[in-house]
Amino acid sequence: MSTFNLKYDQGRVRKYHYFMLLSLIQKHKQISRTQLANLTKMSHTSIGKIIKELINDGLVIEVGQIEGEVGRRATLLEINSNGSYIVGVEVDWNAIKIGIVALNGKVLDKKYLEFDAKQEAETVLDRIADGISALIEQIDHEIAEKIIAVGISIPGLITWPDGEALIVPQFHWEKVQIKAYLEKKIDYIVYVDNHVRTVLLAESLFGNMTEFHDSVCIYIGSGVGGAVMMNGEILRGHLNTLGEIGHITMEPNGAMCDCGRLGCLQTYVCSSEIEKQSQRPIQEIFAAYERKESWAVTLIDRARHYLCLAIANVICMYNPKGVLLAGPMVQEYPILVKDIEAITSKYVWSPLNQSFHLIHPSIGKDSGVIGASALVLNEFLRFTNDDI
């Protein structure tokens, strides 16, 4: 069986029909050659040749049969999760997580590096490069040979496709050429994007959002972020900031945000701002809320109120079918989103009131690493994420 080396065979990577069929198999999970021919209007001969190539390259496998036309049995196809692998890297506030991820989103091996946000960007990137190399060296040689690219998930404003961090406030980074720097250090193509987009991509490929091709992610942690997907494609905007709702103005005369403006959404919802306003750690605030202490009830009820307003505005702007509520504030303190659907419905424009679903993530602690790998996989499957 031939080895499919995306790293060096870029001409093949861009073969439209090859990746169109691969994308459709990923989307439908299991599908026959006849069904592919009906969907694409391609000839059975062409489908057969490309599927043979995909099987020889180890990206697709035959998994069983179903009843086909005129009583014939049709062979089912699915993605070979062990056909290729991706290195996913999550750069978070207190750690760098590196993982080897299969095409089905399973993490085979991982490595954790301590992260000091005060370090220079180049020092951090050197550690990431060394960590990737060390992890690849310790895994099975056959797996290492099938690694196709590296994905990086990181907070901040990240250009696309250049992978430059214009600003990462948490790390005090400005104009850091993440992609270019790492590609000089390691012998792989590197994709870099904002962590909220990678969360939405991961849930869309492997988690609870697979049925929602028009979707929005609202991510609440120490800040507030957002991402938008339409017809299976991430929307980016001029500076790759489309959907970033943390700094939309909710109250023109509201609290001062760390961006220097007044009344941004994140001043009411994110953990760092709630901590600042109460002068208490977030765990203590929610504990006090559970005890129904009035000051904590006021803060958390206000956060829920503004979150519902933001969801209603997002539904009106983007008309998503699914709204993914993600991030540490949602996952660690689910009481924040208690009864949120009923509250949101009060603010949503009435024609859209039954048009959306509020979804919680299914991917757990490895979501950052899996999201970074989903960024890579999505780029190789993005040719036809439409409704065919």
Automatic annotation (TrEMBL):
Q: Which InterPro entries match?
A: ATPase_NBD (IPR043129), ROK (IPR000600), ROK_cs (IPR049874), WH-like_DNA-bd_sf (IPR036388), WH_DNA-bd_sf (IPR036390)
Q: Give the protein's function.
A: Transcriptional repressor of xylose-utilizing enzymes.
Against PANTHER family, the record matches this protein to: BIFUNCTIONAL UDP-N-ACETYLGLUCOSAMINE 2-EPIMERASE_N-ACETYLMANNOSAMINE KINASE, ROK (REPRESSOR, ORF, KINASE) FAMILY
Q: What is this protein called?
A: Transcriptional regulator
Name the keywords, alphabetized: Carbohydrate metabolism, Xylose metabolism
In the record, the note on similarity to other proteins reads:
Belongs to the ROK (NagC/XylR) family.
Q: This protein's superkingdom?
A: Bacteria
* Claim: Membrane is one of the keywords in the record: no
Name the species this protein comes from.
Paenibacillus woosongensis
| Native organism taxonomy | Bacteria, Bacillati, Bacillota, Bacilli, Bacillales
